[in-house]
Amino acid sequence: MFNALVVEKTETGTQADLRQISYDDLPAGDVTVAVDYSTVNYKDGLCIGPGGGLVRVYPHVPGIDFAGTVESSDDPRYRPGDKVILTGWRVGEVHWGGYAQKARVKADFLVPLPHGLTTRQAMAVGTAGLTAMLAVMALENHGLEPGKAPVLVTGAAGGVGSVATALLANLGYEVAAVTGRPETADYLTALGATQIVARSEINEVTKRPLEAERWAGCVDAVGGDMLARVLGQMCYGASVAAVGLAGGASLPATVIPFLLRGVNLLGIDSVMQPFENRQKAWARIAKDLPLSKLEGMIVPAVLSDLPRLGKDILKGQVQGRVVVDVN
Ligand code: NDP
């Protein structure tokens, strides 16, 4: 028997409780993993509570990412003792996830832990950090290089934003961090931001489709009005990597920045990302993310903290990266 956070459907919604379950309860899959750490993402907030419609079948074990050690494997790619990471593939939504001491998944969903990272560090990075890395890689593929105007990071004190800020600063970019929480300024500066932009300065759409050119690139975790506004502030030929919707799913923009400034809007998906690109992104994280800064983002937690943390992340109240020690 082992511990798991199990979400049950109730008459009024859902209820998440810490429970003992057994290997027989785990879903089918070809690799069984002893989970070391998981983390908390916005989607986890939805799946711990009743929201989102992401979970179809109850009882459910949430946790959209985890890192741990292979216990048994029917797949030749993995052997007992191998360290692995799981992100995406709708694990924690459609499949049972990482909020348990054991998980059973398809081998296709896993990537080997890259050299240079521990399983704890991998979950400090987590889906949020992987997505930040994919966003930076997409910007690089579209010509971003240091030495031009600052790169904007929106939702900077959140998970994606924190990792994007630290990565970009370490790669030599000047980083402008947008936050709605002025009290996080010291934290963001410690991650490498050289400019703090107040959310209120940038989160309303203006009548002007183009403003002065300010940003050489942008990692956007917010969407909505802020993304629309940022498009009109991009430098000629610059790109925005659209990662999230913390501020809304709409995009009340005009096409003018695309037509007159050659601005690019790049979509970033971490969930169905092919294995090769995932592996490439994890190798880049191990190389380019300063581990001392990663340590500074970590908020430690245990399984019993998750009902509270799930609510906090939905309210935008989590700073940095929660690392859940499931043991
Ligand atoms: P967090 O909750 O950790 O961070 C989101 C941040 O956005 C907050 O910390 C806050 O930053 C800012 N924010 C929150 N509400 C608003 C608002 N109403 N208006 C403007 N800014 C706001 O979440 P994550 O960093 O984990 O994820 C960020 C987004 O990216 C989410 O929408 C998530 O669903 C998405 N995502 C997408 C992935 C993909 O594959 N495309 C993968 C992972 C995440 P501050 O306090 O600094 O202003």
TrEMBL record:
Database matches in InterPro entries: Acrylyl-CoA_reductase_AcuI, ADH-like_C, ADH-like_N, ER, GroES-like_sf, NAD(P)-bd_dom_sf, Zn-ADH-like_protein
Enzyme class: oxidoreductase
UniProt cross-references to CDD domains, sorted A to Z: MDR_yhdh
Pfam families per UniProt: ADH_N, ADH_zinc_N
EC number: 1.6.5.-
Molecular function GO labels: acryloyl-CoA reductase (NADPH) activity
Keywords attached to this entry: Oxidoreductase
Sequence ranges assigned to domain Enoyl reductase (ER) in this UniProt record: 13-324
Gene3D superfamilies, per the entry: Medium-chain alcohol dehydrogenases, catalytic domain (3.90.180.10), NAD(P)-binding Rossmann-like Domain (3.40.50.720)
UniProt cross-references to PANTHER family, sorted A to Z: ACRYLYL-COA REDUCTASE ACUI-RELATED, SHORT-CHAIN DEHYDROGENASE/REDUCTASE
Name the record gives this protein: Quinone oxidoreductase yhdH
